[in-house]
Write a structure and sequence with these properties.
3 domains, Rossmann fold, 21 helices, binds adenosine-5'-diphosphate, six-stranded mixed beta sheet, four-stranded antiparallel beta sheet, 63% helix, single chain, binds magnesium ion, 607 residues
């Protein structure tokens, strides 16, 4: 029981773009949206870092004043200490406020940027390929940390500033104290290595993690509820969820334990060096007490600063870098697939859509789903595609709709290669309804009207589409007609049956008035045979009725019901990825091949 269909090979995935340029891109993105706030947040965060680092200096002066009985120095140091402490608090508070404002604003900008990127990708491979899905799910979960990353960069720079000041103070006592920082190198190494290890482990198990969440959803949400209870798979779901979760979690926990051990070891090395430095200053070079005080304070701060710096850098590496690389990848990907297309879509089809030796395997898999398919769908015709489940009917439709590019061969609109027209321009000339339609839980009028967004609020157009789809009875039963909110979870919402949802989806497919291609991919599977038959008969008559004079619209119809299929002008029979027969109903019946056999079996069953 796994969630995804079996795939024979998954491997070819483009690598993520380099880290530094991606991070720079994200910086520029933030600056583009909120330039002033970003600068203010940056400036304040650096200013807030300073007084804190100077604390050790005041302490030394204070110590000197006390030991050498110099009241003036004492007073000056005490005032410096007080001002420093107050300024730390004040600047930190102001800077936090400004940063929060910047964060809130930039989060909104980033979220809409990502949503828009995803929606702008014209093919749907990124919604169907498991490796892309993993990448995107990380990105989606990380959107809320992406904004955190600006803060993280600011504070990293702030920590580096503090670190620099502290080191300068130490060197002023004795250059050898610089060595103290060298002993912190192992801590830097372990903290930059840790997130990398943990992230790779987590990513390696992310399929299992996704499966666990999927099983959890199945076990706890309403739609699968009935089946879960009838089949009694509840216990099994729980057990499988647990084992999937463990497959994800245990390797991660082990990786975390291992890396934590190395980290602790590195810190122990630094601790020893700190003790050594104090012994060196007090007994080795016999420095005055005030300076020992400075080394005590600054050295202690040094460990804190280094800890914070490497911690922040670790966070940067783990999230910011990773998240920004994913974002940069998505930007590149969206740009690469949407910039294709240098020819216009023909205004009308004169001859039709021609497939020439089209073969296709889903990206990232090696199984050929369509094998060397050549056929012409004549302009102005109704074409039916038949074949068993999994024969490749929907895939063929997806290729013609340019959701995917064929692996080899070409598709031509009259003489224009489909590969060279812009996908969005071609999509604007498509209309259709699919078996796996989506339930848009809006007002009924919009649920249908979405099929042609510019005319979404055009009530006569919506009603006409409802009529064409034979969905008039659905709308008539709604308490407020087209104004009824759909979906039981919304206030005053009405729930529909599956068949009713499907009729509305069909109406949505009929919204566009003048499409070049209308696709009906088993959109009526939930309706009874007679309704489907009546619907298509009416539809086919209308489609032919408009005749040659108009756009040469082609209708592709996928159905398992031969009573419907036989009305088509051309019937395409697919079997195991290959096209086996093409012709009209009468031609194919005369041929006594696969089609006629299937037809007779179904006709006998209905008799
Ligand atoms: N997104 C996908 N990734 C990989 N394989 C897929 C995907 N969608 C469909 N397939 C495979 O392609 C084959 C044809 O599927 P499909 O075109 O949906 O068949 P049909 O519509 O004729 O029932 C099936 O074996 C199916 O498993
Ligand atoms: Mg299908």
């Amino acid at each position: 029981m796994t969630s995804s269909p079996e795939r024979e090979s998954v491997g070819v995935i483009d690598p993520l773009p380099p880290a530094l340029s991606s991070m720079w891109r994200l910086c520029k993105l933030g600056y583009r949206h909120e330039p002033r706030l970003m600068l203010a947040a940056f400036g304040l965060s650096q200013l807030a870092a300073l007084p804190d680092a100077l604390l050790a200096l005041w302490l030394m002066l204070l110590g000197q004043g006390v030991l050498e009985h110099r009241p003036g120095l004492m007073r000056g140091a005490a005032i410096g200490l007080g001002v420093s402490t107050a300024a730390t608090w004040f600047l930190r508070t102001v800077s936090t406020r400004v940063q929060r404002r910047f964060r809130d604003k930039v989060t909104i900008a980033l979220e809409s940027h990502i949503a828009q990127l995803q929606a702008s990708v014209v093919t749907i491979a990124h919604h169907e390929r498991p490796d892309y899905l993993d990448r995107l799910s990380m990105l989606r979960n990380q959107v809320f940390v992406l904004d955190h990353m600006y803060m993280s960069v600011f504070s990293t720079l702030g920590w580096i500033l503090r670190l620099g000041v502290t080191m300068a103070l130490l060197i002023s006592i004795h250059p050898a104290l610089l060595l103290l920082a060298a002993f912190a190198v192992p801590t830097i190494l372990t903290s930059s290595w840790r997130p990398e290890v943990e992230r790779t482990t987590s990513e390696r198990g992310s399929q299992a993690g996704r499966l666990a969440r999927h099983l959890f959803t199945i076990a706890t949400t309403a739609p699968p509820g009935k089946e879960v209870r009838v089949t009694g798979i509840g216990d099994r779901l729980i057990a499988e969820r647990r084992s999937a979760w463990e497959r994800w979690y245990w390797p991660l926990a082990a990786a975390r334990r291992g890396s934590a051990m190395w980290h602790a070891l590195a810190w122990a090395v630094f601790g020893l060096a700190y003790v050594g430095a104090i012994v060196f200053v007090s007994s080795g070079i016999h420095a005055p007490a005030g300076q020992v005080l400075l080394v005590l304070a600054a050295g202690a701060r040094l460990s804190g600063y280094i800890g914070a710096t490497v911690g922040e850098i670790g966070f940067l590496r783990g999230f910011w870098m990773d998240g920004s690389r994913r974002l940069a990848w998505l930007e590149n990907y969206a740009a690469s697939v949407s910039s294709l297309g240098d020819l216009p879509v023909p205004g009308v089809l004169l001859r039709g859509i021609r497939l020439e030796r089209v073969s296709f395997a889903y990206p990232g898999t090696s199984r050929v789903v369509l094998d060397d398919v050549s056929v012409t769908l004549p302009a102005g015709s109704v074409v039916a595609i038949v074949g068993e489940n999994g024969a490749g009917k929907t895939t063929l439709v997806k290729l013609i709709a340019k959701m995917y590019e064929p692996s080899s061969g070409s598709i031509l609109l009259d003489d224009t290669p489909l590969a060279r027209v812009r996908a969005d321009e071609w999509r604007a000339r498509l209309a259709g309804a699919f078996q796996d339609f989506f339930r848009f839980e809006f007002r009924a009028g919009h649920t249908v009207g979405l099929g042609d967004v510019p005319r979404m609020d055009d009530e006569p157009a919506v009603l006409a589409a409802v009529e064409r789809a034979g969905a008039g009875d659905v709308v008539a039963h709604l308490p407020l007609g087209l104004d009824t909110q759909l979906g039981a979870t919304w206030p005053g919402g009405s729930e529909l049956s599956f068949g009713q949802w499907q009729k509305l989806a069909l109406a949505r497919g009929f919204m566009r008035d003048q499409p070049l291609l209308l696709v009906l991919d088993e959109p009526t599977a939930a309706l009874d045979a007679e309704t489907e038959h009546a619907l298509f008969e009416r539809y086919a008559a209308a489609a032919r009725g408009t005749g040659e004079s108009d756009s040469g619209r082609i209708t592709i119809l996928v159905s398992h019901r031969f009573s419907t299929v036989r009305m088509a002008d051309l019937i395409v029979v697919l079997d195991g990825a290959r096209l086996v027969e093409v012709g009209t109903h009468d031609e194919l019946m005369a041929k006594s091949g696969q089609y006629s056999e299937l037809y007779r079996i179904q006709a006998a069953a209905y008799r």
